């Protein structure tokens, strides 16, 4: 039994372990190849986050989903490179929007080179993803384009906020479905699709990926409040500082509106104040870490992870299915 990747996914089947390890190694090579430029500075900026590592969560899902068809089909590794390049590109852009200073334990690209270079590097990665995608056929291009549209829509919805009368929690879950669920779903879809799995299997794995992606982001929300930078690889409370409401904050506000407790209202007022002040920010983090809203956000994570697990029910029992189920547990554990 071997752990694959930073997620600590336990693979009990030697053949599956070998396939996944070989696939991820090939993806890593593909990422470095795809981020090379004739201009050395562009190569340095484009490989900044590749070299910083990461969970390679999406490529892992491509490899596991490919086990339901031919796991050695030629399109599998390139499609995994596409989804990871797309994900990396969004990180460059996210860090600019969030004014983040740390990503994956290293200085963010915008901190190191400025916002313009970070945005343009993200664009460069999108271009390289499209170049690789073009060789995978028109259906793959369509699937990726639809996912990218959903991803951008989710980001815009987050920026715009919920319309009047819309439940903020429902709005936020829609945001996560677009921002995170879409690309995780495509990872599973590409793995199954490129392996030649039947249409039902492709659909099942796509639904699984969508739900797992939301659970994954909800776990990140909890981790952003509950962990220190050593655990998460980025500055804790970044969204809090920027006034972006994540699930723990939304659950707090929901509770404050429902119960009207003075402490809850006071914490909401603190969150609405200027949290660029380090002392206020630290106090807000301290209070949120001890608040029942954080536990409610953990329960939301568990619910989506269980939904993802349930989606796998139609698939035949096999080592890959077991690994996908265990990923649900791993996501929940991150939020524990």
Automatic annotation (TrEMBL):
Its required cofactor(s), as named, are: Mg(2+)
Q: What is this protein called?
A: Heptaprenyl diphosphate synthase
Recorded hits in Pfam families, A to Z, give: polyprenyl_synt
Enzyme class, spelled out: transferase
Fetch the InterPro entries from UniProt. Isoprenoid_synthase_dom_sf, Polyprenyl_synt, Polyprenyl_synt_CS
Q: What is its EC number?
A: 2.5.1.30
Give the family per the record.
Belongs to the FPP/GGPP synthase family.
Supply one GO BP term.
isoprenoid biosynthetic process
Give the UniProt keywords, A-Z: Magnesium, Metal-binding, Transferase
What is the protein's species of origin?
Streptomyces violarus
Its domain of life reads Bacteria
Q: Which Gene Ontology molecular-function terms are recorded?
A: heptaprenyl diphosphate synthase activity; metal ion binding
